[in-house]
Amino acid sequence: MSESLSLSVIVPVWHEAATIQSFLQSLQPVRNAGHEVIVVDAGSDDGTADLAGPWCDQVLVGTRGRALQMNAGADAARGNVLLFLHADTTLPGSAIQHLERFYRSPKQWGRFDVRLSGRRAIFRVVAWFMNRRSRLTGIATGDQAMFVRASVFRALQGFTPIPLMEDVELSRRLCSLTGPYCIGEPVTTDSRRWEQGGAWRTIFLMWRLRWRYWRGESPESLAAAYRADVRHAKS
């Protein structure tokens, strides 16, 4: 393939004012290498979009919903590879080199392994299970910084606009083309979700929701169950 890698990093955000600048500062080496970073805000009222502006190439403001936000970012992207990155996840320093190797491969999409930022042993166990499950099933989740060739993403019409499991649903369609290109050097995801909800409790919640999804329950009902569980954990 003669064309070189041109990467668009797409970051959906909502109410991330406290951390958005430090997060985007970690992506400046990506921009300095000639690639772009696109932030898609869901109408935050805490100044997230204004704070993000100096540290990215585009700030878009759209409808709340991660699938909708990521599709909007993809529509505006100029790169030949799209990477979808959560605002609590940081790329390893050698990410570009890994993605260049992906781009020269026959694979159409891929993901990184993940590790959690917390120091407790349980977080290493959680990450091991996440990565092992992904290798066995071929399914990736948003915490693993999914990436895909832009032409393939558009041919598949992007993420299905559902309130939960949009990453799993897209993975299933992508797996019909090729298995994922797996990058073993991990991204680092903030462990606060597991710390706030309880590590084992959060693990069981996510596995239970995925099991219900595989059994055919609607993403809308699963999203309602997820919100109810999170509210209960905080009460």
TrEMBL record:
One of its GO terms (cellular component) is plasma membrane. GO terms for molecular function: glycosyltransferase activity. It is found in: Cell membrane. This is Glycosyl transferase. It comes from Marinobacter vulgaris. Residues 8-146 form the Glycosyltransferase 2-like domain. The keyword Lipid metabolism does not apply. NCBIfam families: glyco_like_mftF (TIGR04283). Gene3D superfamilies: Spore Coat Polysaccharide Biosynthesis Protein SpsA, Chain A. Keywords: Cell membrane, Glycosyltransferase, Membrane, Transferase. The keyword Signal does not apply.
